[in-house]
Amino acid sequence: MKSKTIRAIIIIFLFFVAISLPRFLTKIPFGNKTRVINLTAKKYGYTPGRIFVNKGDTIIIKPNSKDVTHGFLLDGYPVEFIIKQGGIAYQKYEWTDDDGALHTDWDKVNEIEFVADKPGKFIFRCTRVCGNLHPFMTGELIVAPNTLYHKMVFLSIWVIISLFLWFRVKTPPLKNQGSLINLFDIIPGLKWLFKRRSYQFFLLLPGFIVFYLFIIASLKGTPVGNHNITIIIVWILWWFLLKSVFVPLGGRLWCMICPLPAPAEWISRKAFTAVHFIKNPIKGKHHKYTGLGLDWPKKLRNMWLQNIIFLMMISFGIILITRPVATAIMFLLILGVTLISAFIFRNRVFCLYLCPVGGFLGNYSMASMTALRVIDKDICKKHKNKCCIKGSPDGWGCPWNQYPGTMDRNNLCGLCTECVKTCPENNIGFFLRPFGSDRAVKNYSEMYNILIMLVVAIAFSITMLGPWGFIKEAANITESRHISSFLIYIGLLYTMSLAVFPGIFIFISRLSARLSGYKGDVKPLVLTLSYMLIPVGIFAWIAFSLPSVMVNYSYVLNVLSDPLGYGWNLFGTADFHYNPFHPEIIPLIQGLLLLTGLYFGVNRVNLSLAGLIPDPLKRKKALLLPSLFALGVVNIFLKLYLG
Ligand code: SF4
Ligand code: SF4
Ligand code: SF4
Predict the structure, then answer these.
(1) CA of 259, closest atom in ligand 1
(2) Ligand 2: which residues within 6 Å by Cβ?
(3) Confidence grade of residue 195 (pLDDT, cut at 50, 70, 90)
(4) Are residues 449 and 521 in the same domain?
């Protein structure tokens, strides 16, 4: 008890050290200068892309555009202007009339002057739709001393030191199933709802209709991404909700309502909601499916194909999320593959082994705060019929080929609720649990998936949020036509995600085995340690998607009134002004999110390592290098977002 108190005091003391040190270490700028910046705007970046000044400096910007009209809106400062070719600019200013009404106007100017009186990193953004990659045209003003960034760096180190100080001699397990809250018990009607045959059908029907409308909108609407409802809703709203709400809270909750595999499943079952039960099972199922009904090859029952498909898709990521036609083609391709795979194979083969979104959801859903599990495994052991796998007149045998009786991870449970309907013992619950409860990474394809997700988050942060126009140009192959730059871009992406990051991680994990004197098989140790990067990855993805919603929410309002970019104004929001929502606080939130991911990553792996390495001292040694790896990764993101 005494040692616990001492450790708590040291941790609190170190916290204050971490937040105070940057003040002393950061160089306080001496004397202010006037800095003249010749700023050139060209699709899709500014030169210079990063402007470094000291607090109190007077900045004079002389803007020019090399191609079309661009905008300049600086986060945290009342500075906005339009940049035209020939060095002409229009600066926005506001004034109040005698009745107190606020008006805005534009002044024709050649230069814009302001004092950098707030320290930190501030993004400036293009406000005029200048082309496909317009939403990603940004630059950065870094006003020294950038204490927030340095504080976050010190705090990230503090998180690691504190966790190592705090790890107890005996690691208590997270709550076991018996003590978890079953949501069926506390949410009236939830179980009744899950048991209805029509539940999933009616849940996904609105999304299904919207999905087809989106395909039409992609093909028939404007090709300008941020005026087309498909691009805005899918890649801003849905992508953000998927990463920030669905996955951390519900795991594969999205799969419950996903419209993509629905037609294939309906055709394969020859039913929308009904169950076709046959008495004599065919290959273990009491159903006959349309098509060949083959089983997926055993050798391919892993994530390798998903990893490859995800990487291929992500190679064209910036094109997919800015071109409506590209998004439509992707949807139609997925639809086609779901139909073909459902004709050849039984059940959700596409979802299990091919879906690129499923690859993202699979591993990350392990950390989610809810899980569908059996209430009592002993009941399953005694229950002979196993209706949950084989099917019954009440429901289909698990379409995801899972056996709930032994299922201990969320990865491959699509939350279709069939087992809730089929289980005659009412032995299925829907549990609320601590974040990061499933922690078993089972093979190298999963470990690679974790690292690929992390590298892609870094790559996207650099490409889409960063100030480097030449990287955007390289990724934007269909417009730039710079094939060699594109090949270098994807070559780097593949090398980092398939060789460099996994190579370093495996190397340091093996080194950790030596350092800790671990004598067992190294593979389970490497896999267990790799779980650390799941919470880090989830929070990094949330931090990455946050600006797209806070900055671009106005586009959502615009496209709701004018979904096809035809000039309609259905709800009066088509002309809602582009006005980022408190963008100056985004770096702070991003920093806190990254620290949270780091905390959960290291903490949860310490819990799972207890099974492999019971000695706490050896466990700490095994944890050290991977924790430093995670710390390094978090600091890459901190540098990108705050530095
Ligand atoms: S795995 Fe993919 S296609 Fe299948 S339900 Fe989930 S998101 Fe949809
Ligand atoms: S049907 Fe219910 S009780 Fe039987 S094995 Fe499946 S989940 Fe367990
Ligand atoms: S039937 Fe299978 S996929 Fe559906 S909820 Fe149950 S375990 Fe999950």
Answers:
(1) 8
(2) 374, 379-380, 383, 386-388, 404-405, 419, 423, 425, 427-428
(3) very high
(4) yes
